What we know:
This protein is of the alpha+beta class. The chain contains 14 helices and 21 strands.
Amino acid sequence: MGMDEDVDGPVAPDAGERIPPHRHTGRHARHAVVIGGGIAGLLAAQVLAAHADRVTIVERDRLPGEAKARSGVPQSGHIHVLLAGGQLALDTLLPGIVAELREHGAPEVGMPGDMVQWQSGIWYRRTPSTAHLLTASRPLLEWLVRRRVLTDTRIETVQGTEVVGLLGDAVRTTGVLLRERGAGARAAREGVVTRALTADLVVDASGRGSRAPEWLAAVGAEPPAEETLDSGLAYASRVYRPGEDDGITDTIGYYVVPDPGQVCGGVALPMEDGRYLVTLSGVRGSEPPSDEAEFADFTARFPHPFLYEWLKRAEPDSPVRAFRNTANVRRRYDRPGRRPAGFLAIGDALCAFNPVYAQGMTVAAQNAVALREALADRRRTPTTRRVQQALLNSARQAWDISSGADREMPGVLGDAARTRAADRPVTWYLERVQRRAGGNPVVGAAFRAALHLSAPLSVLFAPRVVRAVLFEPVPHTPAEPPMWRESDGPVSDTW
């Protein structure tokens, strides 16, 4: 379990030690600590349990024993979906979990067949679906994952406790400093010191608000360089019980995708209990209201009043909840620097995305798959640097999609906002892809496969797609929201 960095000065005696793909049975009992009990942390713990005698998840909240929201996930009241790539990764790690989600009522929404969607200035044809979203609430998904992961007796939790620092130095991390929340925090103010939890490996899965850069600096190590790109997007969400549609439509979901020409967006998707979660968004200066009386009126800014009319028939079932911290942030732990062996970052603590692209949970699962593959690789010693590079690589496509789209938004800020001249031909091509994705089933299937992180971006350059993008005319798309799906047979290319 002790991974060693292989770049800064002499390596430790066990630098070539391979982490065995089974429980360690030697004299030294190996211990891993995971900071954060969310989806990224739970899945990391699941992977590490195959390589350690003991895995401890340290979580600031008290973890509920049911599908219930917790304060440590402030964005849980907003739209969460599991993309096709996330479903595949999650089932790889926890076989049967996707079927279990469906058994607990997680809706499945096919795209484009089940969705009235406006994007890039057009209404999408509702041709047969080639990709499917799972739209369970975040509390349900997290509870089912937590229930499965914590059945492993090697995994334990320390709850109601926060990590306030790292043990060790710039060469090696040897554990974490803990402090209890609540009564523990009051005791700390009265002079009670933190307590140490030693470990052979520490994995930061504490989310986009990670304080690991500060902790690393405190032990004499270099914090990672950060790449940021902030479109200023803000959210407001509310739960509704749908009204009677009276045969108005057979759609399941509604989606207005924001872009430079339409900076306000909105989405309405079903949850497991028959209710709908509606999330509205807008960039700085066009933020959606948190006032309940004004919430539905914001949708008057959309290209068509279809969502406004839906909201008029629906019954509100929650207060409005707002969320503002939506910048894309990538921490480059993979780059050279004086950082300790035995420390990894995963999930949003490594790479956080604008939530409008619904990538977070999917990337957390794909990170965990990458962690499993890196630790099981018998060809190379899984040093800290190599494993961290594998984790970052597994998030690269999602970063390219979210940062590439946000880079075009007006008023975008951050050091990753610059467009290079070398990117212009690809940008030109992808703009042609988007103009055709809503009306051409072949281009649309490839586009969705890439956006759902179930196929690499190279799928957009497959011969049939290139031919349609470069040489075929822009296809016909509906002039009004298509309230009924088409029935023109299956799409031949589902990627």
